[in-house]
Amino acid sequence: MLVLVTGGARSGKSSFAESYTAHLGKRGIYIATAQAYDGEMRARIGMHRQQRELTSYAWTTIEEPLALAETLISLGSLLNENLLNENLANENLPSDDSGNRMGGIEGDPVILVDCLTLWLSNWLLKVEQEVDAEERLMLKIDELVAACKAFTRQGRHLLLVTNEVGYGLVPEYKLGRQFRDLSGVMNKQLANAAEQVFLVTSGIPVELTRMRYQF
């Protein structure tokens, strides 16, 4: 099942996504897209990691700021190999920062990506000086959507956290406008592909898919 969780800054969307991950499976793989550009961001990353470690839920963290589609494809392949060969050696699986190996558990882990907005921002900053920046990012979004569909096709659970950024004023600078527009395109495509879409406002999650108006 593909689940998209969206909302504004500090709305509680990440906390809800983590709780829902624990509801869906016994173990989670947390794909973090944040990059520690400065001390404040390093502190934020450390705080979120510590909060996960304090829970009783079994998390494995992968830090991947750019190659998100490729990571999902790789995880899907590893899980397929585990299903075919239960005796797969653990040394063939990626490890988290503590050296704990993924796999060897009953049932597939639930994958949580937090967040897509940072992933898009990382790519935009990487290619912003290129003349075909928007076209390249549209291709990256298409690749991500395809990877998400492929990962969940066999019944695995994948949760994606993103931000609603288009409710305010039109950004003054071109880079801000590109980010706003590409975020809207990304969120719309993934929402159309998702079985469940949650909007979190003031800590309250509302499931939107069942409320969708049909012509």
Automatic annotation (TrEMBL):
Enzyme class: transferase
Pathway annotation from the record: Cofactor biosynthesis; adenosylcobalamin biosynthesis; adenosylcobalamin from cob(II)yrinate a,c-diamide: step 6/7; Cofactor biosynthesis; adenosylcobalamin biosynthesis; adenosylcobalamin from cob(II)yrinate a,c-diamide: step 5/7
UniProt entry tagged with the keyword Kinase: yes
SUPFAM superfamilies listed in its UniProt record: P-loop containing nucleoside triphosphate hydrolases
EC number: 2.7.1.156, 2.7.7.62
InterPro entries reported in the protein's UniProt record: CobU/CobP, P-loop_NTPase
Reaction catalysis annotation: adenosylcob(III)inamide + GTP = adenosylcob(III)inamide phosphate + GDP + H(+); adenosylcob(III)inamide + ATP = adenosylcob(III)inamide phosphate + ADP + H(+); adenosylcob(III)inamide phosphate + GTP + H(+) = adenosylcob(III)inamide-GDP + diphosphate
Keyword Kinase in record: yes
A Gene Ontology molecular function term of the record: nucleotidyltransferase activity
Pfam families the UniProt entry points to: CobU
Record key words, sorted: ATP-binding, Cobalamin biosynthesis, GTP-binding, Kinase, Nucleotide-binding, Nucleotidyltransferase, Transferase
Family of this protein: Belongs to the CobU/CobP family.
Function noted in UniProt: Catalyzes ATP-dependent phosphorylation of adenosylcobinamide and addition of GMP to adenosylcobinamide phosphate.
Name listed for the protein in its UniProt record: Adenosylcobinamide kinase
Organism: Paenibacillus agricola
